[in-house]
Design goal:
Mean pLDDT is 92; it is low at 438-442. The chain has 14 helices and 20 strands. The radius of gyration is 22 Å and the shape is globular. It has helices spanning 13-28, 52-68, 79-83, 85-89, 106-109, 163-167, 175-187, 211-219, 239-247, 264-269, 276-289, 308-319, 348-371, 434-441; strands at residues 4-9, 32-34, 42-47, 73-78, 94-98, 120-122, 136-138, 145-149, 151-152, 171-172, 192-196, 226-229, 254-256, 294-301, 325-330, 377-382, 390-395, 400-404, 413-422, 425-433. Helices cover 33% and strands 23% of the residues. The longest helix has 24 residues, at 348-371. It has 4 domains: 4-122, 3-Layer(aba) Sandwich (Rossmann fold); 133-252, Transcription Regulator spoIIAA, CATH 3.30.750.210; 253-372, Transcription Regulator spoIIAA; 377-441, Nucleic acid-binding proteins (OB fold (Dihydrolipoamide Acetyltransferase, E2P), Beta Barrel). The chain binds iron/sulfur cluster (SF4). Iron/sulfur cluster binds at residues 154, 156-158, 161, 163-164, 198-199, 233.
Length: 442
């Protein structure tokens, strides 16, 4: 009987794509990949360290895995492992700790997965690393969406962020290799490719390449698919990328653009690379050019020095922005960051209250955006899950759409005329799949 492995991811989409690659490495070596809740011979945790909560969650998960199989071989990798290997080595039951450079080289470092008395630590310094560990994550069953890592690391130095410490300098996959892998994913039937990285907009520096050129070359590939940028910094969302998104039907009509704070004072303390006027300028420009554009915004509340007044400035700034949803994060102190040394720590309960206020604002914006889709025709990619006769999917502009289950529409780009909103989903009439609707229109 083959040995089993269970993998668990904490954090971002980039981590998900890397976990998927680790899972495939195990499959190629003859292991069976099982669900995390099952008993496994090996457990792999791909960790995050963006918030304090992620560290704690990792510790709890290791304990849970060992309850499922006290003799399991436990591997911890990812950002937390890169930054705190010694701390992890003290966790009972952990056998191996792999840093960011070592994450995808598991089989050359750990041969036998035999438990030893002390944990092995393989963590090399990440500064000046030029290594790029290629990975992508794909839904093996439905073949709908693939997360494709094209960039890693970050050269920015936002004062709250530990990611550059954990993942190193900005570096990218070579453009020719990106296109080869991209074509491969399309040939395998994936209809949506989500480009991921730590700072995707920074793609290509060392190759003298630009994200805009790469997007154009991807969109020129034959096939029925669409491309989504997972997230892009406002200063890197150029006019040419906005225009390409407007003009090319293969580009999703959706941007996720981190803001972090709407208060000029806090934005400066965060060492972000733009001012609020610049941010709103980008949002307005994109909205003017692209019909029904979906825009998501990251924001952090409770940053040191954020007074009630500063928070209200942020609240009102976002309230007036034509965006469709928010991802709200509560600031948490991270070791080795500049922000942890700043004065004006915000009370934890107050941070929670501010988070709650912005979440309510996000719900309102999202529901207004969904309502505004009534009467519009959206391109939707339906997923394979049959939930009591209902299927779900995302539109190009990142609206959740549900409809009666129809196996013929799974993993097809369908055109849906929206009739209204029910239970936080848009619903409507399916006019056909994109290819046939295009033919009728011709
Ligand atoms: S842009 Fe700022 S927040 Fe984003 S990864 Fe880089 S340093 Fe961190």
């Amino acid at each position: 009987m083959s040995k089993t492995v269970a993998l668990h991811t904490l954090g971002c989409k980039l981590n998900f794509s890397e976990t998927s690659t680790i899972g495939n490495q195990f499959l190629h070596k003859g292991y069976e990949v099982v669900e995390f809740k099952e008993k496994a011979d090996i457990y792999v945790f791909n960790t995050c360290t963006v918030t304090e909560h992620a560290d704690r969650e990792c510790r709890q998960l290791v304990r849970r895995a060992l309850r499922q199989n006290p003799n399991a071989y436990v591997i911890v990798t990812g950002c937390y492992a890169q930054l705190r290997p010694e701390e992890i080595s003290h966790m009972q039951g952990v056998d191996a700790i792999l840093g960011s450079n070592e994450k995808l080289k598991l089989f050359s470092l750990l041969e036998d997965f035999e438990k030893k008395e002390l944990a092995c630590i393989y963590v090399s310094p990440i500064n000046n690393s030029n290594e790029f560990g290629a990975s992508n994550s794909t839904d093996a069953d439905s073949r709908t969406r693939a997360y494709f890592k094209i960039q890693d690391g970050c050269d920015y130095n936002c004062s709250f962020c530990t990611i550059p410490l954990a993942r190193g300098n900005s570096r990218s996959m070579e453009p020719g290799s990106v296109l080869t892998e991209f074509r491969h994913l399309i040939a395998r039937g994936y209809k949506e490719i989500i480009l991921t990285g730590v700072n995707v907009g920074d793609y290509g520096k060392s190759y003298n390449a630009k994200l805009y050129d790469l997007l154009g070359r991807m969109a020129d590939v034959d096939g029925n698919f669409r491309i989504r940028i997972s997230s892009i910094e406002p200063n890197l969302l150029t006019d040419e990328i906005i225009k390409l998104t407007q003009q090319n039907e293969k580009m999703c009509k959706h941007f996720h653009i981190p803001l972090q704070s709407g208060s000029p004072k806090i934005l400066k303390l965060m060492q972000r690379r733009y001012k609020t006027e610049y941010y709103s300028g980008v949002i307005n420009k994109a909205n003017e050019l692209i019909d029904n554009l979906g825009i998501g915004v990251d924001v952090i509340v409770g940053f040191p020095g954020e007074t009630e007044e500063d928070f209200i400035v942020t609240y009102n700034f976002i309230k007036d922005l034509p965006v469709s949803y928010l991802h709200v994060f509560t600031y948490s102190e991270r070791p080795d960051t500049k922000a942890i040394t700043m004065r004006g720590s915000v009370d934890v309960l107050e941070r929670k209250r501010r988070n709650n206020m912005l979440r309510i604002l996000s719900d309102k914006k999202k529901s207004l955006f969904y309502e505004s889709m009534t009467g519009k025709e959206l391109e939707v990619l339906f997923e394979s899950e049959n939930n009591n006769g209902i299927m779900k999917g995302f539109s190009s502009n990142y609206v959740r759409v549900s409809n009666n289950f129809d196996p013929m529409l799974v993993n097809e780009l369908s055109i849906v005329k929206i009739e209204g909103v029910r239970d936080n989903f848009c619903r409507g009439n399916i006019l056909g799949n994109k290819k046939s609707v295009d033919l009728i229109a011709c």
